[in-house]
Amino acid sequence: MRIFVDADACPGVVKDIIMRAATSRKVQAIFVANKVLPLPASEFLKQETVAAGLDKADQFIAEDADVRDLVVTADVPLAHILVKKGIVAINPRGLIYTEDNIGDRISVRDLLSDLRDAGEMTSGPKPFGDKEKRAFAASFDRVLTQLQRRFPTREA
Known about the structure:
This protein is α/β, with parallel strands linked by helices. Helices cover 46% and strands 15% of the residues.
């Protein structure tokens, strides 16, 4: 199993949690971004730099991830693709995307996009704080443990 991180917009504290977990659990974490990220030297941490452009990181992850992997992304359309393929996806706030909740997430995303386009809303997501960090860490640890039990770790 591997951990893919949609890293361009991922909060730094979430990246730190993932890096520590990947190193301690000996699981390869692949950070996908359109710019070079400062990753510590580790055989378990890898960066895939994609071309700049809309959804390039998402395309890479959607094509490369499989059912043995865990994907961390805030991108709801990417999560929708992954869930349909049976791939576990979690957002940086700890929400595990499922068949039961992804349709609602897509609907909310589309509604908020329409409202922003019409000038009705200008605020972004709520601030990311300790509560969100703890929620992510708990969900991430639980899902990672489950996946590691089902799928042996690949060599980095």
